[in-house]
UniProtKB/TrEMBL annotation:
Residues 78-218 form the XdhC Rossmann domain. It holds the Pfam family XdhC_C. It comes from the Bacteria. The lineage of its organism: Bacteria, Pseudomonadati, Pseudomonadota, Alphaproteobacteria, Hyphomicrobiales. This is XdhC family protein. It comes from Rhizobium leguminosarum. Gene3D superfamilies: NAD(P)-binding Rossmann-like Domain.
Length: 235
């Protein structure tokens, strides 16, 4: 790997941007391509597949041969609400390989006893997400039922293009939620990306089962995401 390629990949890693290193042995060239960058033929489908799958690919044809090495940011889950479901979800998500953070300004819930060894913030989401913003490789899971706590991170997730956005609540609760977000400038297409009711429909009834349903839906969204998804909405 050439020094300029290494420097570009390190910069992408610091910014949590997906990148591939395209090495073409026939042309004796290598290129760093960031997710969202224009891609030249004949490598479009190859690079898009690498970004989508998160797996490196070897290629060999009459005109080119080499490797597409992909470097993806570690997937994260930002959980809004230090509730019982969150206690189960943090443990399961970490076992599945996710970096997890929990945000809840209610200090009676956001305690180290309830969430040992988890990145925990007792700040309001507006402050916590300003200090450590969401990105396209983060899933946003809102679990408080409280619009004063949930609405800001949901709007931030829509603007950012998080690969998964889910919110706990009944159909009535979600209808009121979408009305508030629509008044904030979000259209029907953006609002339809919010998973509510949250989680896959497996008949979950207790906190652990609901956590399983949520995590399964997050994993499904991660592996079916399309590269460079972002929504150009109100800022």
């Amino acid at each position: 790997m050439r020094l300029n390629s290494l420097q570009s990949l390190n910069a992408a890693r610091r910014k949590r941007v997906a990148a591939v290193l395209l090495t073409d042995h026939h042309a004796d060239e290598e290129h760093v391509i960031l997710e969202g960058d224009p891609i030249e033929e004949p490598f479009v489908a190859l690079v898009e597949r690498a970004f989508r799958s998160g797996r490196s690919i070897a290629f060999d044809s009459a005109s080119a041969s080499g490797f597409v090495n992909v470097y993806m940011p570690a997937p994260r889950i930002a959980i809004i609400g230090a509730v019982h479901i969150s206690q189960c979800l943090t443990q399961m998500a970490r076992l599945a390989g996710f970096d997890v953070r929990v945000i809840d300004p209610r200090t009676a819930f956001a305690t180290r006893d309830r969430f040992p060894d988890v990145l925990l913030s007792a700040d309001w989401p507006a402050d916590a997400l300003t200090a450590d913003p969401l990105d396209r490789y983060t899933a946003l899971v809102a679990l408080t039922h409280d619009p004063k706590i949930d609405d800001f991170p949901l709007a931030a997730a829509l603007r950012t293009g998080c690969f998964y956005i889910g919110a706990l609540g009944s159909q009535k609760t979600h209808a009121a939620r979408t009305e508030r977000l629509a008044a904030d400038g979000f259209g029907a297409d953006a609002l339809s990306t919010i998973h509510a009711p949250i989680g896959l429909d497996i008949g979950a009834s207790n906190p652990a089962e609901i956590a399983v349903a949520i995590l399964a839906q997050v994993i499904q969204a991660l592996h079916s995401r399309r590269p460079s998804l972002s929504w150009d909405g109100p800022q």
